[in-house]
Design goal:
- Strands 2-1-3-10-4 form a five-stranded mixed beta sheet, sandwiched between helices.
- Helix 5 packs across helix 13.
- The protein starts with a helix and ends in a 5-residue tail after the last helix.
- It has 14 helices and ten strands.
- The protein has two domains: about 200 residues, 3-Layer(aba) Sandwich (D-Maltodextrin-Binding Protein, domain 2), CATH 3.40.190.10; about 100 residues, Periplasmic binding protein-like II (D-Maltodextrin-Binding Protein, domain 2), CATH 3.40.190.
- The chain has about 325 residues and is of the alpha/beta class.
Length: about 325
């Protein structure tokens, strides 16, 4: 009887112990991440789509959601409020918001050359910024269009031109008033609006802020100080997957166009292909790594905005960006 009790006791103990011996580790929950884009879906964001469709985000255990932007979308508020974890912004906006005390930080410059250009019709007498005086310029806007407004102000102020002598009207992404001749000058992207205008047969004069000393990065990936402090590994994973997608978009841009068309509302392959071709030299400059940022460039951008009185307070040029995550992705030492 005692032997039976002993066997039952051993059997019961083995049953109790069995789950702890054979239990598998619980799967790590997938992190849900939201990326706020500047504009509606288009080839401008092809690298992010590549990262999604090729499974690079999934490899980092991330489930990524894209939010479309636009002129009426307050991208900064969405990122700061936590509606989006990351945002595609311009360095001007990041610098301006940092000077106001907002906790935005750039983690990578996707477009290392600016895509912004101001255009006037070829038969006009508008060839340079000085010709904007007493003309109607579509350089006012918020959301995705704020980049144009800031670039316009910086260029005019650097040249000592009186902005009050320009009739400034809201930017129109459809360019209707410009086509009709009611607006004399409009900003656009060489990767988007310029292509659409030329497709309509317009001959244009191009005025590039870069030619007047206003040199900035363009699309820049940003997050908040809160996420940097609380989830640094999430940033590294997201950035690593995103840059992998951008690298593949550069290497196989036709595939990138094919994937982009899954997201765009208008399935215009010719337009998206032209956008990709115009975008490639802005992203892949042949310098450093894709997405890389330099302290010298940030110093220059902060100085330009400070000189033009566009900052709410004096700002150290190291405040608006953080190189930590690019260094982790590319495994490089301190520079």
């Amino acid at each position: 009887m005692n032997r039976v009790k002993m066997l039952l006791t051993l059997l019961l103990a083995s049953i109790i112990m069995l789950p702890s011996c054979t239990q598998q580790p619980l799967p790590v929950a997938t992190d849900e991440v939201t990326l706020q884009l500047k504009w509606s879906h288009q080839a401008q964001f092809a690298g992010f789509y590549m990262a999604q469709e090729k499974g690079y985000y999934a490899q980092e255990n991330l489930k990524v959601k894209f939010l479309e932007g636009g002129q009426d979308v307050d991208i900064v508020r969405r990122v700061i409020s936590g509606q989006a974890d990351f945002g595609v912004l311009t360095p001007e906006i990041i610098i301006k918001e940092r000077s106001k005390g907002e906790p935005l930080t750039a983690i990578a410059a996707i477009y290392r050359r600016s895509a912004v250009v101001f255009v006037a019709k070829n038969d006009s007498d508008i060839l340079r910024p000085g010709d904007f005086l007493k003309k109607k310029v579509a350089a006012a806007g918020e959301g995705g269009a704020e980049e144009f407004a800031l670039r316009f102000r910086a260029m005019m102020k650097r040249l000592g031109l009186d902005i009050s002598m320009v009739e400034i009207v809201p930017y129109d992404p459809a360019y209707t008033a410009f086509y009709d001749g009611e607006v004399h000058v409009t900003p656009c992207y060489v990767t988007g609006g310029l292509i659409k205008m030329r497709k309509k047969g317009l001959r244009l004069n191009l005025i590039r802020p870069d030619d007047y000393g206003i040199r900035f990065y363009s699309d820049t990936l940003a997050t908040t100080e809160k996420i940097i402090a609380e989830r640094p590994e999430l940033i590294t994973r997201f950035l690593r997957a995103s840059l992998k997608g951008w690298q593949e978009a550069v290497e196989d841009y036709q595939k990138a166009v094919e994937i982009t068309l899954k997201y765009t509302r208008t399935k215009d392959a010719e337009l998206q292909n032209a956008m990709m071709e115009a975008m490639l030299p802005l992203v892949h400059t042949g310098e450093d790594y894709l997405g890389w940022m330099t302290p010298e460039m940030w110093k220059s951008m902060v100085e330009v905005m400070s000189e033009q009185g566009l900052l709410a307070r004096p700002l150290d040029s190291g405040e608006p960006y953080n190189l930590r995550f690019l260094k982790e992705v590319y495994r490089v030492g301190s520079q």
